């Protein structure tokens, strides 16, 4: 389940006036929502579809486990780092304009990735894909929020948004396996191009244009946060290759930390900051984003290591790997629909702690990873508590991120929660890869099973830590 991105620009005191979308007729709102929701489906699909293809991709281009992690991280990191600047550009230049530009950039990146002849070209193309997604995703939801004012209409639109996010994850798992086995790994990148072209064409016709708000982009802040995150992620990923004490690890980690600290300081001084510090002190914003950083690493790490275990240890074909992940994806989708009712009965804070604990228990069960594992006992059954737990957590943290936030700042709150999810995923995957990829000349299935199991146990520990921390969420900030 991917919580939907939002245009991350505050419109409260100290922020610019919001870009105004000129409303179309009521009959056009449904088709416009369909176009924008399809774009969200595509973003989620692109995140999950590549995972089942990783073993075939690694064989085709000669990538190690660390190299494969960067195939995922290059997209996730660029996507996460661009959510805030992308939403800001939407306010400055018009959300529909930036949405269309982002979709075009996404198409270009997908085409180059599908045709890549070597690792360097593939990783560069994945960065371009992430840049496109980072532009189109926040502006897509910003357009939805502008088209549907608060009330029953917006609630239904958000339900559709959440549903396509879950469906995109499930579809990516299944289609990744089918495409890899039937046509080769290149088609996991090429298959989304027709969808994106359809979105581009239909958006020009069905999505009404908006009036830019004007203002300036916080360029120093955007550069600092992007470079800081890239350096920190690079340092973490290098630990598997060079060891934690190496200069190639400590140097980037230190440099990344300094840049992120400078970004935080600059946001208190910038005339038009990407993140207004006052918003972080509202309601549940800080708590939700801290927890989502942890959960993002768990989520991305799970979908990275699970297909590797299925194919490299259990010997599954890409199609079988995709099919055996469906219980996990469907459990996440179903939980996202049922969570609001459970939260009303239990209270959001209790529901959040229980959901995180459920996910942690499922991950610990899954981490057994025997080299002769059963599809039912060792995959399907532990996938159910993981899927239910994570599906509920994404809904609850998205709601918590808006608790106590006035409507004028809802866009910024939504952009932040998705930024921390993507960035947490990039940093978490780098950390888990360092745990699971010790230097080896040759690795037997049994040794790989041990390594992947170790990564999943660390993911379970992170989820358990998040469950513990969720108990300290302020009571008054727990309800949306």
Quick overview of this protein structure:
This protein is 77% helix and 1% strand. The chain has helices spanning 26-49, 54-61, 65-93, 95-115, 119-147, 152-183, 187-190, 192-206, 219-242, 247-267, 277-280, 285-313, 318-324, 326-346, 348-366, 375-402, 410-436, 445-470, and strands spanning 20-21, 210-211. Helix 12 packs antiparallel against helix 16 and helix 12 packs antiparallel against helix 18 (445-470).
Structural commentary:
- It is a multi-pass membrane protein.
- It comes from Actinomadura rubrisoli.
- The chain is mostly helical.
- It has two domains: 20-217 and 272-477, Growth Hormone, Chain: A, CATH 1.20.1250; 218-271.
- The protein is built from 18 helices and two strands.
- It is globular.
- 59% of the residues are buried.
**What's the level 1 CATH class of the largest domain?**
Mainly Alpha
CATH topology of the largest domain: Growth Hormone, Chain: A
For the sheet with most strands, the description reads:
2 strands, antiparallel
- How many whole angstroms does the radius of gyration measure? 21 Å
The CATH architecture name of the largest domain reads Up-down Bundle
DSSP strand content: under 5%
End-to-end gap: 19 Å
Shape descriptor: globular
> Which regions have little confidence, pLDDT < 50, spanning 5+ residues?
1-19, 21-26, 476-480
Number of helices: 18
Query: What is the residue-averaged pLDDT?
Result: 82
Summarize the amount of helix as a percent range: over 70%
Q: Which sequence of strands runs across the widest sheet?
A: 1-2
Membrane topology: Multi-pass membrane protein
Subcellular location: Cell membrane
GO cellular component, one term: plasma membrane
Keywords: Cell membrane, Membrane, Transmembrane, Transmembrane helix, Transport
